[in-house]
Amino acid sequence: MGTSKIVMGAGLCVIIGLYAVGFNTADQAVYNIGKSQAYHDQARQIAYVGMRFAIGDMGSNSGASLPSGNVNLMSGNVTYTGDRPAGVSNSQARVTSVGTYNGYQVTIVAILQYNGVKWVVQRVYQKPDAVEYSRLSLGS
Amino acid sequence: MGVMIDIIGSTIIRGAIILVILNLNVSLNNALSEKTARAAVKQKTVVPAQIITDDIRLAGFGPTTSKVFAIAKSDEAQFSADLDGDSAAETVHYYLGPPPAGSTHRALYRAVSSINGGTPFELARDVDSLIFIYYKVDGTSAGTGLNIDNIKSIYVKLVIESNAMVSEGIGAGNTPQYVKAYWERHLFPQNL
Questions:
Q1: In chain A, what residues touch B6 (CB-CB under 8 Å)?
Q2: pLDDT single digits (tens) A23-59
Q3: Is the ipTM reported for this complex over the cut 0.90?
Q4: C-alpha distance from A57 to closest chain B C-alpha (Å)
Q5: Nearest residue to A88 via CA among A58, A116, A60, A122
């Protein structure tokens, strides 16, 4: 009779222990995903700053050379390059800005337009990256 | 004998359950105090961050001379800006002052030439650090010092701490620490 109580108590401890391990695992997973999302967001902000650097580089000169640069900032890094693909007029330019933060990378592509006074952003979008999105979902 | 084992076993199980409940209660209370302190510290950064953003966005109003930063240090900045829209530039000065009486943290001061005769105003307390980094048009560093020109963008980072230490757990290995919150932004003033 007493032996059954001991066995029951031991089983109870094992069950509580399994729950505790499960809670800790879930807690760690939530933290990892939150951290990876924060790093990804920071990389995106850094990429936007690179795009602003590119705009400043071209300034108010309608015949400005295509911008390029590499800057360390916000504990990360941004590399921006400009080009003019086929079909784009001389009053337009495409800027690709890659922001990197703690191993996470976000690429921003902006189309700049010369409005007669200075270069301004006509449209901007974030380049989808399947590998980065997979990293975000796994929290790695 | 069997009865004794039953009694001992039930006592051990009951004790274990009570221990778990007490531990959970203490952990939840510590987590509550830590999260509350963190939320309060984050709230303390909102207003200073908004004021700094609004001021720096207007930096450089006026002729060429107004685009020079009179002070462009890593923890202090003084620049010209037309804050009240009267077409006359004021001088705006941000710096960290000595800690107020009874505190170990520094205070962030803001002085505007057109407000109270330029008397500094305490914008934030419990400031851990204030960082300014100045960039030229292409992202290269504009350097630091006095009367710096060619500044096209400014990176600002403000770190504020809680005014008291917070314990995040229990046990001998747990060390109370100040809870920190930081705000950072890279600003591109239109007038520079």
A1: 1-2, 5
A2: 899 988 888 888 999 999 999 999 999 999 999 888 8
A3: no
A4: 5
A5: A122
